[in-house]
Design brief:
six-stranded mixed β-sheet; mainly beta; four-stranded antiparallel β-sheet; about 50% strand
Length: about 110
């Protein structure tokens, strides 16, 4: 079973940038689509970006043009480059397959605040 570990979160000012990483252990990472999800306080977890096994991407309207998802199948790693961050991007960010059938990791907190 693949295990996922997210990292790279932190506190950033509005307009700033962060890059998140998702490291997957186990086999099979390159055989399915992956996604980044986020859960803001008192809200449901939602998919915000996904990438197919061959690199095709889709984004939620709320992050389109500001976030870039990528993956390195040879390293079993996925990334989320976040720019022009807004306070409403504050959330715990998780990675998982898309649709999500893997176990959830602990997530990484992103806080956008001045």
């Amino acid at each position: 079973q693949v295990q996922l570990v997210e990292s790279g979160g932190g506190l950033v000012q509005p307009g700033g940038s962060l890059t998140l990483s998702c490291a997957a252990s186990g086999s099979g990472f390159g055989t399915y689509a992956m996604g980044w999800y986020r859960q803001a306080p008192e809200k449901h977890r939602a998919l915000i970006a996904e990438i197919t096994k061959s690199g095709g991407t889709n984004y939620a309207d709320s992050v389109k043009g500001r976030f870039t998802i990528s993956r390195d199948n040879a390293k079993n790693t996925m990334y989320l480059q976040m720019t022009s961050l807004k306070p409403e991007d504050t959330a715990v960010y998780y990675c998982n397959a898309s649709p999500s059938f893997l176990g959830w990791g602990q997530g990484t907190q992103v806080t956008v605040s001045s």
